[in-house]
From TrEMBL:
Coiled coil: none annotated. This is Arabinose ABC transporter permease. Keywords: Cell membrane, Membrane, Transmembrane, Transmembrane helix. Its main location: membrane. Residues 19-394 form the Major facilitator superfamily (MFS) profile domain. It is a multi-pass membrane protein. It comes from the Bacteria.
Length: 403
């Protein structure tokens, strides 16, 4: 029997690995355009393509569109299935990136960013639905953490290899290269994923406003996203303008943030088991507070900016992955897409709100006050999540949701 089961276990592990790689890629491409805008921010400002305020507006438009589309996207995923949704996600990502590369000025560029809200709206519902359908409960936490790290993989790609490529062929050529890669990933998804069942008829209308635990997680995600978005959007420009870093070194800050986020999301998600996961969001958000304070102190000791980038990735960015693990543990049968979308909408709304609050401070060169604002947002998220964890502890332990 052992001789027969060992190959079966090996095949299952290989299938899990291929699925994880595909889902990780989908998450990376879903937000790659916004990481590219952050990493190339100094180039855009120096070439007068965007002002610092318009740079923040790109994030607001992209994530505002994602927040509005997320509840609808969740329903679409539940009805049509993960394969169709992932292929659509990657094709639209490719189109948005291609438009950014072709944009002659801010008008078309901002329109392309708005189009990129659709892949973001589909990303968490589609990938979570695929995990619940294909991954055993014992491995869902680790697979979820790995695929959530794809977002930070996108940050790394924007901040290092694509930034280096931009130094050789220009930022437009680098963005078009990313668009071609997204199109290739869509073909991979079409070939690798099993066919979806026939599209389901429309289910009974579900509430578009989160309730109960979902409401707590959405509010936490809004505050957390506000702080993370400000760091993603402005840390490279901060490095270039306030710390005297060159464009490549400033973009590398985004890459370091991405690598730290990958490690943090994978590591924390693996230990986010029912009964323990509820305590993690508050602790991670609290750990991000001193990270934002280090950014405020970086003009007095420049190496602190690298420590801060790592800490934001390990704590703040990782907290979002843990919140998605919690959603999957609590999702009602057949509603994983919708529940994921409602919490993701809160996160995207935070990404839409954060940079405009930071932008006037960046325009005035008052980055220290901006980073203290980010610290306050992380502190509020931590307090909210801790209050929710205490409430959940009183209600007793929860078990993993069924597929």
């Amino acid at each position: 029997m052992a001789e027969r089961t060992a190959p079966a276990r090996t095949a299952a592990a290989g299938a899990d690995g291929r699925l994880t790689a595909l889902l990780t890629s989908a998450m990376a491409f879903s937000m790659l355009q916004l990481f590219l805008l952050g990493a190339f921010g100094p180039r855009f400002v120096d070439e007068s393509v965007l002002s610092p305020t318009l740079l923040g507006l790109t994030t607001t438009i992209g994530f505002g569109a994602a927040a509005l589309l997320s509840p609808i996207g969740g329903r679409v995923v539940d009805r049509t299935g993960p394969r169709r949704s992932l292929v659509a996600l990657l094709l639209v990502s490719a189109a948005a990136l291609a438009l950014i590369g072709a944009a002659p000025g801010p008008g078309l560029l901002l329109a392309a960013v708005a189009l990129g809200g659709l892949p973001q709206a589909l990303a968490n519902p589609a990938t979570n639905k695929a995990i619940l359908a294909a991954v055993p409960p014992a491995r869902r936490g680790s697979v979820t953490g790995m695929k959530q790290s794809g977002v930070q993989l996108g940050a790394f790609a924007a901040g290092l290899p694509l930034a280096a490529l931009a130094g050789c062929i220009g930022w437009r050529g680098a963005v078009w290269t990313a668009a071609a890669a997204a199109a290739a990933a869509a073909l991979w998804a079409h070939r690798a994923l099993p066919a979806d069942p026939p599209a389901k008829s429309a289910p009974p209308p579900a509430p578009l406003v989160p309730r109960g635990a979902l409401a707590w997680l959405a509010a936490f995600s809004l505050l957390l996203g506000s702080g993370i978005a400000s760091v993603n959007t402005y840390v490279a420009l901060f490095g270039a303008r306030e710390l005297g870093m060159g464009p490549a070194a400033a973009a590398a800050l985004v890459a370091v943030l991405g690598v730290a986020g990958i490690a943090g999301r994978v590591g924390w998600s693996r230990v986010a088991r029912p009964g323990r996961a509820e305590r993690l969001p508050g602790a991670l958000a609290a750990g991000a507070v001193p990270a934002a304070c280090l950014l405020a102190a970086a003009p007095y000791a420049h190496p602190l900016v690298w420590v801060a980038a790592v800490a934001v990735g390990v704590f703040a960015v990782s907290a979002n992955a843990v919140s998605m693990v919690l959603v999957m543990q609590r999702a009602a049968p057949g509603r994983a897409g919708q529940d994921s979308a409602l919490v993701a909408a809160g996160f995207f709304a935070g990404f839409a709100v954060g940079p405009p609050l930071f932008a006037p401070l960046a325009e005035a060169g008052r980055y220290g006050r901006g980073w203290l604002l980010v610290a306050a947002e992380f502190a509020a998220a931590g307090a909210l999540a801790t209050a929710w964890a205490v409430r959940e502890r009183r209600r007793g332990p929860r078990t993993e949701a069924p597929a």
